Amino acid sequence: MEMQSKPGPNGTPGTFPSPSPGFARPSLPSSADRILGIIVRGIAVVLILVATILMGAAKQSKTVVTSTDDYTNTVYTDTVTIKSTYFIAANALSFFFSTVSFALTIINRSSFANLPLLYIIDQVTVVLLFTSNGAAAAITMALKKGNDEFGWAKICSLAGKFCSEVTAAIVLSMFAALAYVLLLLLSIIALHKRS
């Protein structure tokens, strides 16, 4: 770094380092960073879509025979579904945000880190995904283990297919949330490189 003579405070002579050429202009992320961001966003969009559809379609019918006394048998069919409205709504909203951010990333040729709107979308998406996954996981644990205090039966012992579909939806949505955490880290790294 070379030194330049510039006036100091109050007009006194001073010596200040001149900025290097790389420091004067922020560098743009490489095309590999941009492609990685696009791929991770695309994967997240697909994961969120599949998780939302899987949770919305998860149900299982089971025929149950109960006996009230020695002479009477009651046969009924019950359909097990989960009313995980928050999971479905949060993932649908995350899918919308993900699709918008995916389109913005493709349209913006310089970098996914250059759009402040993407930071906000990514952060909101991470919050929505993690909170909906936590709520759905808590409900799933209650379905698997039951709760004697409240009289909740262990549903998953009767409806294994249903519980497997719900668990798969939560896992896919969690992978999408982790993809968004990776995108936020990539954005932070890109910002750090620019400064």
UniProtKB/TrEMBL annotation:
Span of domain Casparian strip membrane protein: 33-178
Region of interest called Disordered, as start-end residue ranges on this chain: 1-25
Topology term for the membrane: Multi-pass membrane protein
Record-annotated membrane-spanning stretches: 35-58, 86-107, 119-143, 168-191
Main location: membrane
Compartments where located: Cell membrane
InterPro entries: CASP/CASPL, CASP_dom, CASPL
Comp. bias regions, Low complexity: 7-23
Keyword check for Transmembrane: yes
Keywords: Cell membrane, Membrane, Transmembrane, Transmembrane helix
Keyword GTP-binding on entry: no
Cellular component terms per the entry's GO annotation: plasma membrane
Annotated family: Belongs to the Casparian strip membrane proteins (CASP) family.
Subunit record text: Homodimer and heterodimers.
Stated name of the protein: CASP-like protein
Native organism: Asparagus officinalis
